[in-house]
Amino acid sequence: MPTINESYFLQNQPKPTSNTGQNMLGKDDFLKLLITQLQNQDPSNPMDDREFIAQMAQFSSLEQMTNMNKTIQKFVDVQTSQSLVQFSELIGKEVKWVQEVDVDEYRTELQYSENKVQSVKVEFDGTIRILLDNNRWIHHEQLTQISAVKENQPANPPSRDASSEETTD
User: Fold this and answer.
1) 67-102: per-residue pLDDT in tens?
2) Smallest Cα–Cα separation from 112: which of 124, 94, 87?
């Protein structure tokens, strides 16, 4: 009777590891390494002053870059929300927009359309999308003109000329 080698059992297989960016060292890890290095140095041969100052400068630079990254991310978030508010003013307005349409396999042409804006949203990547009254989402860069909604006006508005006015003497 054949036997199965125990190394093939599921519980004996190595567990897969996922790389989620946790392999990167942060400022806390850098500081722990520096402290460990200082604690374990040879008292008869301490760390060179210049080397210690260089490591402290690297730590300071790392901390400043981390703080600057957080500040820039907050700035980007504020800009995105302001863009959404700014584009929300388009709701209910008539817009003229452009799209590139294939004429054949070698040529394209620009096609202009006019629609009324129904909604505005921000995509996960920060892109502003605009919903038109034909249920089509377009990119904000496709807009070419914005105008107030055209009211239902009569085709031939009454004109006022001198012959139609009554004159009293």
Assistant:
1) 999 999 999 888 888 888 889 999 999 999 999 999
2) 94
Over residues 110-133, mean pLDDT: 91
DSSP state at residue 139? E
Report how far residue 13's alpha carbon sits from residue 92's, in angstroms, rounded to the nearest whole number: 62
Kindly provide the b/e burial profile for residues 20-56, where b requires at least 16 CB atoms within 10 angstroms of the residue's own CB: eeeeeeebeeeeeebeeeeeeeeeeeeeeeeeeeebe
DSSP summary character for residue 28: H
8-state DSSP, 45: S
Residues ≥6 apart with Cβ < 8 Å to 123: 129
**61: which residues sit within 8 A by CB, 6+ positions away?**
none
Instruction: Of 2-6, 55-59, 113-117, 163-167, give the lowest mean pLDDT range.
Output: 163-167
Nearest to 146 by CA among 115, 118, 121: 115
